[in-house]
Write a structure and sequence with these properties.
By secondary structure, this protein is an all-alpha fold. The chain has twelve helices and no strands. 70% of the residues lie in helices and 0% in strands.
């Protein structure tokens, strides 16, 4: 570039404040994504260092601190702590009803039937897992006519999701299962299949559904903290105590942030959540060697049932799009269809942004 061109460029910058401004939000988004990714990695590493109770408190406070830092980066990297109150009471009622039913079934499975009565434990446990996936999918796609992507289900943001998922799972594996002396296959294979099934339930119910609906109503910050709190408290169904729940609240914040980075459940499943749960079950030892080989088929059946519900929902969504498309072609002046509500349109626009930061996007 010549000296004259450089001088002209400087004059344009001086006289036009908007020159180059379009790049600033994008740079801010990239910076915020990097900061929050580093937060998740650091929080995972801290599990190998801190006491359980201290971990939960430290992670929650660190998340608030990072939110304050990134909130100063300007739009669209704005306030994780800033709430926008647009409460959909139907959503909250469904969340509450499903949550109570799931926790009650877990409580029956692990405190009434226990490992002494495996059939009753599995039936209660499996029913809770299936309700936790089928309930949100049916409510979202067939009742509210929202896209599956609003539950984090789909191939959107796939590249960034895969990269983040492998990074987080690699850290998790390094601090838990690397070099771990596994027991006999009969003792750990059923546990692994169980954690895969539970992990899918937790990713869809707590991240895609609970966190997604809370964010739509209250904003990102309250959604992250609220979903983390509900995730911790639901472990009362397992019979866990307060100390463990404090730790699980911190872990819930980590999972919530990881999900928010890609808005795709594949960042958490099938690697991150199942790996952590599998290691926790091995360390606790309560179910090691207690689940028979037959339970593998049982949990596989639950996974297949979950997959069928999602497949049916995806087929229904595609069919609805085709019908709407045909109506638009035949009558271009017809108003927007229910399947393309404001939320659907917003999701489609955001799909093009790729890996996003923890912001309200406003």
């Amino acid at each position: 570039m010549s000296a004259m061109q450089t001088q002209e460029l400087e004059q344009i910058k001086a006289t036009d404040p908007s020159f180059g401004a379009s790049d600033r939000p994008r740079r801010g988004v990239v910076t915020a994504v990097a900061i929050w990714t580093a937060f998740v990695v650091a929080a995972l590493l801290l599990m190998d260092v801190l006491d359980l109770k201290i971990y939960g408190v430290v992670v929650a406070l660190a998340a608030v601190a990072v939110a304050l830092v990134t909130s100063r980066m300007g739009k669209p990297v704005s306030a994780i702590a800033r709430a926008r109150w647009r409460v959909d009471w139907k959503d909250l009622v469904v969340i509450g009803g499903l949550y109570v039913a799931i926790v009650a079934l877990f409580r029956v499975a692990f405190t009434v039937f226990t490992a002494d009565r495996v059939a009753g434990l599995f039936l209660s446990f499996g029913a809770a897992l299936l309700i936790g996936v089928a309930g949100p999918v049916v409510y979202t796609v067939w009742i509210r006519r929202r896209p599956l992507a609003s539950l984090g289900i789909g191939l959107h943001n796939l590249r960034s999701t895969v990269r983040l998922g492998l990074l987080f799972a690699g850290v998790q594996f390094a601090i838990t299962l690397w070099g771990y002396d596994l027991p006999r296959p009969v003792d750990w294979v059923p546990l692994l299949v169980m954690t895969l099934t539970v992990g899918l339930f937790e990713a869809i119910f707590f991240r895609g559904f609970v966190q997604g609906r809370l964010e739509a109503a209250l904003g990102t910050g309250p959604a992250v903290l609220g979903a983390a709190a509900l995730y911790a408290l639901y472990h009362v169904g397992y019979g866990m105590g307060a100390d463990e729940m404090v730790f699980l609240f911190g872990l819930g914040v980590v999972y919530a942030v990881a999900y928010r980075l890609s808005e795709n459940v594949l960042v958490l499943w099938p690697l991150l959540i199942p790996l952590g749960s599998f290691f926790a079950q091995l360390e606790a030892g309560d179910l090691v060697g207690e689940l028979p080989w037959a339970s593998v088929a049982g949990f596989a059946d639950v996974l297949v049932a979950m997959a069928v519900v999602v497949w049916l929902a995806a087929r229904s969504e595609r069919r609805r799009r085709r019908v709407n498309s045909q109506r638009t072609i035949s009558s271009p002046w017809v108003a927007d269809r229910p399947a393309r509500d404001a939320e659907s349109v917003g999701l489609e626009r955001r799909r093009g942004v790729g890996c996003r930061s923890l912001d309200d996007g406003s």
